[in-house]
Amino acid sequence: MSWGVGALIVLMAVGVYSWTSSAVFTALAMIILVGSLAGFFFPTVYKFYEGHVEVRYTVSSVKREWSQFRSFYPDRNGVLLSPFATPSRLENFRGVYLRFGRCERSRVLEIIKSKIENRKDEL
Question: Three-class SS of residue 1?
């Protein structure tokens, strides 16, 4: 799959260069395109700590305290950690989505459940 995306990027580079005849604009377009696909090409690292969860992307990282999450919603590919106690349309913007990838799905859900379920008694 990544070979297909890589071939598409090369094809786009050829198209942009033939349209603009400028190596500078072609390079800029490719930087923007690869940057927008960074989540696909470059690894994302998830680390669980006692007091917080950390998500490291290619050039940035997000650190959120477990106390900020009130619910979670697992699906086939990962789990959404939500700051809302009930489902909300804002979850996708304010929550954190953790992809399972190659890790043990049951172990990840067990850790998240222990961190968030225990808090429901406090709320």
Answer: coil
Task: Tell me how far apart the alpha carbons of residues 6 and 34 are, in angstroms, rounded to a whole number.
Answer: 9
**Domains: count for the chain:** 2
Calpha distance 106→31 (Å, rounded) = 37
Q: Using CA atoms, how far apart are residues 25 and 16, in angstroms rounded to an integer?
A: 8
H-state helical runs in 37-123: 38-41, 91-94, 105-120
pLDDT at 118: 57
CA distances from 69 to 30, 51, 73, 96 (A): 37, 12, 11, 9
pLDDT of residue 122: 53
CA distance 1 to 22: 29
pTM: 0.72
Please give the average pLDDT of every successive group of 10 residues along the chain, which has 123 residues. Answer: 83 93 93 86 89 90 92 92 91 90 85 78 50
> Do 56 and 114 fall within a single domain?
yes
Query: Do residue 25 and residue 58 come from a single domain?
Result: no
